[in-house]
Amino acid sequence: MANIGPAYGMSRDVQSKIEKKYDDELEERLVEWIVAQCGAAVGRPERGRLGFQVWLKNGIVLSRLVNSLYPDGSKPVKIPDAPPTMVFKQMEQIAQFLKAAEDYGVVKTDIFQTVDLFEAKDMAAVQRTLMALGSLAVTKNDGNYHGDPNWFMKKAQEHKREFTESQLKEGKNIIGLQMGSNKGASQAGMSYGRPRQIIS
To answer: Cα–Cα distances in Å, from 123 out to 70, 105, 112, 128, 193?
Structure first.
């Protein structure tokens, strides 16, 4: 990140539009959830986009978050004893979180790229991923979610219905309203134009 100079022209416009998508209120809610989910040991970031990015940058907080959504004995991400200091190790830790989030059920379109977080390219995408993860955790309702369930929207769930054979047979006898009704009307006595002339 130190090698990247200031952006000019169109690059600056694009970056400023991306930065405007970042939601400070959403940041507060996500921090509250992460602390409730992982415990106070993860600490709290400084307020603002940069503080949030620095807090999550090494991947340890994210790894603890996704591990907390699984029961004991089936944690998907290995967390090192000491936080990684080398850049490629930190990026690897973030990549492990992203893989675990996808395995948990977050769709690919909701998952941020490693550089979005590591270089603070698109912190709004990081927020979207965490929101999707929280929504899935609330929807699964398996006892591993901690925090206020109203922080996230529940995803729609399949509601499968089973019909007996007799119910299915009854349904064949009913004319649905979409089919309409002709109330006894027919085309008898109707003629259109002149009859066809056959000349021999």
So the answer is: 25, 21, 9, 9, 71
Q: Is 55 a domain residue?
A: yes
Q: 148-189, pLDDT tens digit by residue?
A: 787 887 776 666 778 888 888 887 777 666 566 666 666 676
The full length of the chain comes to: 200
The model's pTM = 0.69
Answer whether residue 76 is part of any domain: yes
Could you give the dihedral angle defined by the CA atoms of residues 59, 134, 26 and 146, in that order, rounded to the nearest 10 degrees? -90
- d(CA 118, CA 152) in angstroms, rounded, equals 25
In a domain, 163, yes or no: no
Instruction: Write the CATH number for 57.
Output: 1.10.418.10
Q: What percent of the chain has pLDDT over 70?
A: 77
Count of domains forming the chain: 1
Biggest CA pair distance of the chain: 103
Residue 39 belongs to domain spanning: 11-151
Do residues 22 and 57 make contact, with C-beta atoms less than 8 angstroms apart? no
Structural contact between residues 120 and 50, judged by C-beta atoms closer than 8 angstroms: yes
Query: What rounded mean pLDDT belongs to the chain?
Result: 80
